[in-house]
C-alpha cells in the first residue's frame, strides 16, 4: 500500500476493502478487461491528487467507508462493484466547490438516504445497485424526465440525486397503495419491475454481454468516460435479454424495459 497515506488512513482503507470483500457475494468488475473491481484503496490513491490536504484525504476515506457500508447493507446481493467513475465524478465536483465540508455532508446524507430507500430493507427492495451505478437510472432521467435541460447534467450530481431520492419516496407511496406496477411483495422477495429475469445468473449474462459490446450508459469501471445519449440503452437491454433467451419475468408489476 502507498506510503503516502498515513497509518490511520491505511488502517481505514484496509477495513473498507475488507468490508466489501467480506459482506458482498462477489467483488466483480463489469469491465470486459478485468475480473475484479478496483478496490477503494486504489481508487483513492489516484483521486488524492485532487485533494489538498491530509484532512481532505481522510474525509474522503470516511466518505468511502460510509458508501461501502450502505452498499453492502442495502444491496448485499449486488454483483458488480465498479466505483471508479462514481468516486471520480464526486471528487471532481468537490474540488471545484467552495464549501467542501457542506458538500461532503450533503452527499453522505443523500447517498445513505437513496440506498436505504431502494435497498433490501425498504418496501422497494431492489436487489442490485447496477441500474444506479452504471447509468440506467441517469439515462431515464436525462432522456425522459429532463430531455431539454442543459444544466447540471452530471450523472451523480445533486440534481440527479435529488430526482432519485424523490422517486424513492414516490415508489414507497405507490407500494403502500398496492399499485399495479409497484405492488406489495413478501418480505423475503426482491422486486423486479422489468420484463426479464434478474436472477444472479441472468443478470450476469445480460450485463456482461452489454458491456462487451460497449452498450452500458456509464461504464463505471473507467475513471473518465465520454457519455453519449445517442443510443436507447433501455430498449437495447430489453432486446438483448430477448436475444439471450433470458427467462421472462412473470412477477406481478413487471412493466419496464
| Termini Cα gap | 43 Å
Share of residues in strands: under 5%
Q: State the total count of DSSP E strands.
A: 0
Rg over CA atoms, rounded to whole Å, is: 18 Å
Poorly predicted regions = none
- Assign the structural class, choosing from mainly alpha, mainly beta, alpha/beta, alpha+beta, or little secondary structure: mainly alpha
Instruction: Summarize model confidence as the mean pLDDT.
Output: 94
Order of helices and strands: HHHHHHHHHH
Largest sheet, strands/sense/barrel: none
How many structural domains can be distinguished in the coordinates?
A: 1
Share of residues in helices? 40-55%
Output the number of helix runs: 10
Described by the principal axes of the CA atoms, the overall outline is: globular
Oligomeric composition of the shown chains: single chain
Q: Can you describe this structure?
A:
This protein has 257 residues and is mainly alpha-helical. The chain has helices at residues 7-23, 40-47, 54-74, 84-95, 100-118, 130-133, 136-145, 158-176, 200-212, 233-243. It has one domain (7-243). The chain has ten helices and no strands. The model has no long low-confidence stretch (mean pLDDT 94).
Outline of the structure:
The chain has 257 residues and is mainly alpha-helical. It has 10 helices and no strands. The longest helix is centred in the first third of the chain and has 21 residues, at 54-74.
Amino acid at each position: 500500500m502507498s506510503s503516502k497515506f498515513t497509518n490511520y488512513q491505511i488502517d481505514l482503507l484496509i477495513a473498507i476493502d475488507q468490508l466489501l470483500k467480506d459482506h458482498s457475494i462477489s467483488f466483480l468488475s463489469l469491465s470486459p478487461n478485468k475480473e475484479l473491481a478496483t478496490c477503494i484503496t486504489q481508487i483513492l490513491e489516484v483521486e488524492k491528487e485532487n485533494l489538498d490536504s491530509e484532512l481532505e484525504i481522510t474525509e474522503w476515506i470516511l466518505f468511502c467507508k460510509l458508501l461501502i457500508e450502505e452498499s453492502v447493507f442495502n444491496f448485499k446481493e449486488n454483483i458488480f462493484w465498479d466505483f471508479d467513475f462514481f468516486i471520480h465524478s464526486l471528487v471532481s465536483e468537490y474540488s471545484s466547490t467552495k464549501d467542501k465540508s457542506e458538500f461532503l455532508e450533503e452527499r453522505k446524507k443523500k447517498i445513505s438516504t437513496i440506498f436505504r430507500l431502494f435497498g433490501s430493507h425498504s418496501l422497494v427492495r431492489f436487489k442490485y445497485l447496477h441500474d444506479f451505478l452504471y447509468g440506467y437510472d441517469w439515462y431515464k432521467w436525462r432522456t425522459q424526465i429532463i430531455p431539454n435541460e442543459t444544466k447540471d447534467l452530471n450523472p451523480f450530481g445533486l440534481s440527479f440525486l435529488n430526482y432519485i431520492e424523490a422517486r424513492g419516496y414516490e415508489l414507497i407511496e405507490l407500494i403502500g397503495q398496492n399499485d399495479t406496477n409497484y405492488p406489495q411483495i413478501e418480505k423475503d422477495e426482491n422486486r423486479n419491475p422489468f420484463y426479464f429475469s434478474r436472477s444472479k445468473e441472468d443478470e450476469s449474462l445480460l450485463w456482461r454481454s452489454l458491456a462487451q459490446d460497449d452498450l452500458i450508459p456509464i461504464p463505471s469501471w473507467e475513471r473518465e468516460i465520454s457519455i453519449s445519449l445517442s443510443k436507447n440503452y433501455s430498449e437495447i437491454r430489453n432486446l438483448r435479454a430477448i436475444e439471450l433467451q433470458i427467462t421472462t419475468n412473470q412477477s406481478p408489476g413487471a412493466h419496464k424495459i
